[in-house]
Design goal:
The protein has helices spanning 12-18, 22-29, 39-46, 102-117, 132-140, 169-178; strands at 2-6, 58-64, 70-80, 85-93, 122-128, 144-155, 158-168. The chain is α+β, with helices and mostly antiparallel strands. The protein has a single domain (2-183), classed as Aminopeptidase, CATH 3.40.630. The longest helix is centred in the middle third of the chain and has 16 residues, at 102-117. The mean pLDDT is 95.
Length: 186
C-alpha cells in the first residue's frame, strides 16, 4: 500500500537519482524540463504548488506505508475549479519498485483527491504511445482514449505519438462502487 504526501525540496535528491537519462526525463515530463534535471529546475516546479485552497498544481510523492520509502511521484496540474477539470502528469515509479501495482495505487489515490475532495468532473492525461505499461495501467484505472496526437515528439531518429486519455466523475463513481474503497489511500 502507498500513501500520497506532498513533494517538497527534501525529496529532490530521490527524484534526481531516479531520472538519470534523457529518455526517462522526456517520458516523465514531456518538454517541461530539459536534460539534465537539476534542483534549481525542481524549485521552480514546486513553487506555488500544494496550497489546497489556491494552487492549480499539487505535487506528490508516493510513500510505501510499510517501509516508509518513497516509491513514486505524481502530480495533478492545470486544476480549473470553474470547469472542474485537471490533468494528471509526471507519473513515475522508482525502477526497483515497478511491476508491483504502485502506479495503479498512485493513480487511484490521486483520482480520489481529484474527484472526492476537489469535486472535479474530468481528469485527463497524456501518455506517449511507446509507454505500453503506462497505457495498460491507465486503462485499468478507468481512463478512456480521447484521441492520439500523431508523431508529436521527436526522440533521436524516431517520433512518438501522444495518446490523450480521460475519466469522468460518473466513471470514477462506478469504479469505486465495484472496488474496495479501503484500498485507496491518500
Amino acid at each position: 500500500m502507498i500513501k500520497l504526501e506532498y513533494f517538497t525540496s527534501e525529496d529532490f535528491d530521490t527524484l534526481l537519482n531516479w531520472i538519470k537519462d534523457k529518455e526517462l526525463l522526456l517520458q516523465w515530463a514531456g518538454t517541461q524540463f530539459n536534460y539534465p534535471l537539476t534542483k534549481k529546475k525542481l524549485e521552480g516546479y514546486i513553487k506555488e504548488a500544494n496550497d489546497f485552497e489556491k494552487s492549480s498544481t499539487f505535487i506528490y510523492k508516493a510513500v510505501d506505508t510499510e517501509s516508509g520509502r518513497t516509491v513514486g511521484h505524481i502530480s495533478l496540474t492545470s486544476i480549473n475549479r470553474t470547469n472542474r477539470s485537471a490533468r494528471i502528469t509526471r507519473v513515475l515509479v522508482n525502477n526497483a519498485d515497478r511491476g508491483k501495482g504502485i502506479a495503479e495505487q498512485m493513480m487511484k489515490a490521486l483520482m480520489k483527491i481529484g474527484f472526492d475532495e476537489l469535486h472535479l468532473h474530468r481528469m485527463s492525461l497524456g501518455v506517449y504511445d511507446t509507454n505500453a505499461a503506462a497505457i495498460k495501467c491507465y486503462k485499468k484505472c478507468g481512463f478512456q482514449v480521447d484521441g492520439v496526437l500523431r508523431e508529436i515528439q521527436r526522440h533521436e531518429d524516431s517520433y512518438w505519438s501522444l495518446m490523450e486519455m480521460s475519466i469522468l466523475e460518473n466513471e470514477w463513481a462506478e469504479m469505486k462502487i465495484s472496488e474496495n474503497p479501503a484500498t485507496i489511500t491518500i
